[in-house]
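job 3f2a | input accepted
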Amino acid sequence: MSKTLYKLIVIAGLWMGATAAFAGNPDRQGEAGAHELLINPWARSAGLHTLNTSSIMGVEAMRLNIAGLSRMVKGEFAVSNCQLYKGTGLSMNELGFGTKMGKNGAFGVTLSSLSFGKIPVTTVNQPEGTGENFSPNFFHIGIGYSYLYDNKISVGILVRGISESISSVSAFGFAIDAGVQYVSGPQDNFRLGISLRNTGSPMIFGGQGLSVANSNIDPAGGTTYNLTYDQRAEDFELPSILNVGASYDTYFNVEKKDYLRIVGNFTSNAFSQDQLGIGAEFSFRERIVLRGAYKANFGKSAAGIGEELYTGLAGGVSLIFPTKKDGSSSFGIDYAYRATRTFDGTHNLAVRFAF
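job 3f2a | predicted structure (355 res):
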């Protein structure tokens, strides 16, 4: 049996095993927490509606498929800002750094935070607001490692710490991401990718904010006094997700690397509807990259859950400027837009430096 066939059998086995583990039912929709783990702040992959499981590489791979981290040339530093549902005040910022370790390994760190803007403080006696404001703190840190075998198969694993808190209530948890990518063809035309994300232990909120002071319900000797009662919060699962994607590149000029890439992706959500999408990416002289994609939900929907906020359309563009004559390092600006049924869409802007 050839090595290539053996590798394909291994990948197919991983896919079938992961798919079986995700067999669920629509009644679980909406039960998970920490949904910010599903937000994509990076512009290159957002322009493809996060469908590029098979072809993503570099720092952005730590958000979708950690196996692509080892496919960068040397190292990469990137910063992004995502304006979620423009008009709501929601935004996500992410910083990522990745570097090669030896010939085939790569190590990366990513930091992200979700901003809610200023939220007025209200009380029972002051429902119009006290004049004060607060903002929840949602913060993630991820550490990942990826390894590339003979430029054909890359694998990776990432551990992410998750922190959600306000001034008096907080929750903390861990999530593990794993992924694999397979590349084949004379110019690495065909790519296959599988990633399993956000598998981890349940999270639960705790803190003084869940305590309340009330009078003793059975005063001894007729004496009344206050007691502090602790309320137990219900724990919640992380939004586990399985991605299976493939892509094919058609080169118009191999030397100058002009190509058209068609990508397809299937997403199995443990706590929401599954998704299927297709997209295209056109690269000209490795200087300008145009992207567009469409993604749709399918399968049964739980009663009472309306349409997806996104319409399914996404698009983006990248401008790459070489900083060395040999092209070994570059500076890039990426932008993406995803249309929404309400609000003014989601905008992603990122800058990156490859060295």
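job 3f2a | The two ends are 40 Å apart (CA to CA).
job 3f2a | closed
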